[in-house]
Design brief:
The chain is of the alpha+beta class. Helix content is 54%, strand content 10%. It has helices at residues 12-39, 46-50, 53-66, 68-78, 87-97, 105-116, 164-178, 188-201, 204-217, 257-278, 312-326, 330-340, 349-362, 364-367, 379-391, 402-420, 427-447; strands spanning 126-127, 133-134, 138-144, 150-156, 224-225, 238-242, 247-248, 280-282, 290-293, 298-301, 307-309, 372-373, 424-425. Strands 1, 2, 3, 4 and 6 form a five-stranded antiparallel β-sheet that branches. A four-stranded mixed β-sheet has the order 5-10-9-7, covered by helices on one side. Helix 4 packs across helix 7 (164-178) and helix 12 (330-340) crosses helix 13 (349-362). It is globular and about 65 Å long. The termini are far apart.
Length: 448
């Protein structure tokens, strides 16, 4: 985590003013550089002037300071696929996700007093004022109870919840104004969804509920470990949990192959259960949301803010889609995509064929017979190239269903984790076994 601290603007006016100031500085820099280029006889476009390193840095710094809305809209737009974004905007959003900035201790203390009262420290024997993690919605601190129990205290940034709607609208307007988004893409559904998803993530009581539901779903499974919520200290903007010890997931990259394979198998198996059994998906596959206990070979699940419930038809559609992709059944994949909500009436066959091509490509690890070598696969690059090729056919653009975007974001993120850890897995075998069990369970439930 960055050592930088910066006060979070709490009022709607101050947050809107930050974006207005950003637009003014960027415009001024464009005017200056454009005049300089004109004086030297150099031809330059508005896009080139906008995307200078100085402006990209300004975009990233100001958006990071606004925290939640900027990061969430960026996640919804990018989804690790690149189909909706120019390379420049992808770079800004990647920089933004790495620019987590903690709030100053003075502001933190004020927040804690508002939630726990002036004697808030009496609740604990020790509270570390410097956070060990900072993200889009809040930051996490270590604390201890009088009994010696170690806790993780997640504190929400002030003003995040109240400013969600205006933040997302202001940011979307800025992105449209910048010309960084393809004109043909209708992002209003994504903007609306960003608001709702961010409202959900800013509700720590809802996150605590999801955490408990996951604990119940995984009860008795020694492959996974989830923190326990401390209800007596938690609220809608402060979430207190037991502190779970573990190693950062990316540290497994230096361990033996079998352990890396095991960790990725646990991640992929959990995703299949989320998608088809729980219909409850933690949609943010960030490395920081997982840890690993090497001695127990147990995956630690840490963050449930981005959890999403899926309707039955989406779950059934993906089971049909993946099964069709594994058998290279294009008609089956197209039918499943229709059920998920991909194809509206009047879409060109060329567009439908391109979408099916992307699904078939994305399912390559599941279709592959034997071990799939994630580290030596250029699958993400090929998916991105195919998506960019499809985006050039602007008259065919069609916004995918939002549920699907979250599912794809999770799967793409897991594939990236698998690549970074250098996993070699028979993913086809994992899915086939799971598919058989799901179909058996559904058949029994129909009989009952």
């Amino acid at each position: 985590m960055s050592n930088k601290q910066k006060s979070v603007p709490t009022s709607r006016f101050s947050r809107a003013a930050r974006l207005g100031s950003l637009a003014g500085k960027v415009a001024g820099n464009m005017l200056f550089e454009g005049t300089k280029a004109w004086a030297t006889g150099k031809q330059t476009s508005r896009q080139e002037l906008l995307l200078q390193p100085k402006n990209i840095q300004r975009f990233a710094e100001q958006l990071a300071n606004l925290r939640g809305a900027a990061m969430k809209l960026g996640q919804l737009l990018s989804m690790d696929s690149g189909e909706l974004l120019t390379p420049e905007l992808s770079a800004i959003l990647a920089r933004l996700r790495a620019e987590a900035t903690a709030m100053p201790q003075k502001q933190l203390v004020k927040v804690m007093r508002e939630h726990w009262g002036d004697t808030w420290l009496d609740q604990l024997s020790h509270f570390e004022l410097r956070p060990f993690a900072a993200a889009s919605i809040g930051q996490v601190h270590i604390a201890y109870r009088e009994s010696g129990e170690k806790l993780a205290v997640k504190v929400q940034y002030p003003g995040i919840a109240k400013g969600i709607a205006s933040d997302v609208d202001n940011l979307a307007y800025l992105l449209k104004l910048s010309g960084l988004l393809p004109k043909e893409v209708e992002i209003q559904p994504l903007i609306d969804e960003a608001k709702q998803q961010l409202i959900n993530e800013a509700d720590y009581e809802l996150e605590a509920n999801y955490l408990k539901r996951y604990s119940e779903c995984l009860k008795g499974d020694d492959n996974y470990l989830i923190p326990t919520v401390v209800d007596s200290l938690s609220s809608s903007q402060v979430l207190v949990m037991s502190f779970v010890e573990g190693q950062e997931l990316d540290e497994l990259a230096n361990t033996e192959q079998a352990l890396r394979n095991k960790a990725v198998e646990q991640l992929l198996s959990l995703f299949l259960r989320e998608l088809f059994s729980f219909r409850l998906v933690q949609t943010d596959p960030n490395f920081a949301n997982f840890q690993y206990q090497i001695d127990n070979q147990r995956l630690v699940l840490l963050d449930f803010g981005a959890t999403r419930e899926l309707p039955q038809h989406i779950s059934d559609g993906y089971l049909q889609l993946i099964s069709g992709a594994i058998s290279n059944n294009r008609a089956g994949v197209a039918t499943a995509a229709q059920q998920i909500g991909y194809f509206q009436q009047g879409l060109a066959q060329e567009y439908i064929d391109n979408v099916v091509d992307i699904f078939l490509l994305a399912c390559e690890p599941l279709r592959h017979q034997g071990e799939y070598d994630f580290a030596n696969s250029d699958l993400p690059k090929r998916i991105k190239e195919l998506g960019l090729k499809m985006s050039t056919a602007s008259e065919h653009w069609h916004a995918p269903p939002v549920d699907a975007l979250f599912v794809h974001r999770k799967l793409a993120g897991l594939f990236l984790i698998a690549a970074k850890l250098g996993a070699k897995l028979n993913v086809n075998s994992i899915f086939k076994e799971f598919e058989y069990n799901v179909n058996m369970q559904r058949a029994v439930s129909k009989i009952i």
